[in-house]
Design brief:
nine-stranded parallel sheet; 9 strands; globular; alpha/beta; 10 helices
Length: 257
């Protein structure tokens, strides 16, 4: 078993490598083990939306204690770096990160929800200071919702806001800036120019560019959020529909371990 310090350094190296880091989001022990067993997997990322759904909560409504229960199940299931989706960091983001590190988490998504600029920066600062105090090179994927919550303002204003917030987060020590909604080549080019090479993290939502294209543009990391769970649940629904029709499990179904 590797230590938390070791796994943090592993994740840092993956973020800084010239190849884009692809993290397939998971939500429980069995989904984590399934992804960890693939030879291409280098790190594990949780999806907060998916963990919340598995406990019967809407996205962003799950209590912190329950969120950490879900994260712990993933960390305990694998011996790989785990980066956790911790919503907005909850009431005290520094304490949230301390608790996550104690579970073995070495990175996290924490969103600003477009809070006032200085408040958002202060929350990132608190997270990075807390991680430093724990002696972990914590890989904060500092999320700004400048585009996702930009509303009716012009896209150019949202991108400029994302860059301003992202630069401030980087200045506080955040290794990466996560900008949901950055789907087009023009958006990504502008963000990479404003934030720097290997500093941008994106989500591979439907309609996004292929991962290789993001890599060529200088993006450090791509994740897939709740879409992995949605695809899995669609497969379950499709199977159930077939079972109601024919009542037979497909012959190529993997055997039980």
């Amino acid at each position: 078993m590797t230590t938390t310090t070791d796994r943090a350094l592993q994740l840092k190296a993956l973020h800084e490598a010239p190849e884009i880091l692809r993290v397939v989001n998971v939500w429980d022990a069995i989904s984590a083990k399934t992804i960890a067993d693939l030879p291409e997997t280098r790190a594990i990322a949780t999806a907060g939306h998916s963990i919340a759904a598995s406990f019967g909560y809407a996205d962003g409504q799950m209590p912190l204690d329950l969120a950490l229960v879900g994260v712990k199940a993933v960390v305990d299931a694998v011996d790989l770096p785990v980066t956790a989706d911790l919503d907005d960091g909850y009431v005290d983001p520094a304490e949230t990160i301390r608790r996550a590190i104690a579970l073995g988490v070495v990175g996290a998504n924490v969103e600003d929800r477009l809070r006032p600029f200085e408040e958002s920066v202060a929350r990132v600062r608190a997270i990075m200071k807390a991680a430093e105090a724990e002696g972990v090179d914590f890989q904060l994927n500092a999320r700004t919702d400048a585009i996702a919550r930009g509303g009716d303002r012009p896209k150019s204003e949202s991108i400029a806001d994302a860059i301003a917030r992202g630069r401030a987060f980087l200045d506080e020590g955040a290794p990466l800036i996560f900008v949901p909604g950055a789907l087009t080549r023009d958006d990504v080019e502008a963000l990479v120019e404003g934030l720097g090479h290997n500093k941008l993290s994106v989500i591979g939502a439907p309609g996004a560019l292929p991962a290789a294209d993001y890599e060529s543009l200088g993006v450090a990391r791509i994740s897939y959020g709740p879409f992995t769970q949605r695809v899995a649940l669609r497969a379950l629904s499709t199977l159930a529909t077939d079972l109601y029709a024919t009542g037979t499990i497909p012959e190529d179904t993997p055997a039980l371990n």
